[in-house]
Amino acid sequence: MASDEQSVRIDSWIWSVRLTKTRSLAGAACRAGHVRVNGERVKPAHAVRCGDEVRLRVGGRDRIVVVSRVVKKRVGAAVAAEAYVDNSPPAPPREEIAQVAHRDRGAGRPTKRDRRDLERLRNG
Question: What is the pTM of this model?
Answer without folding.
Answer: 0.72
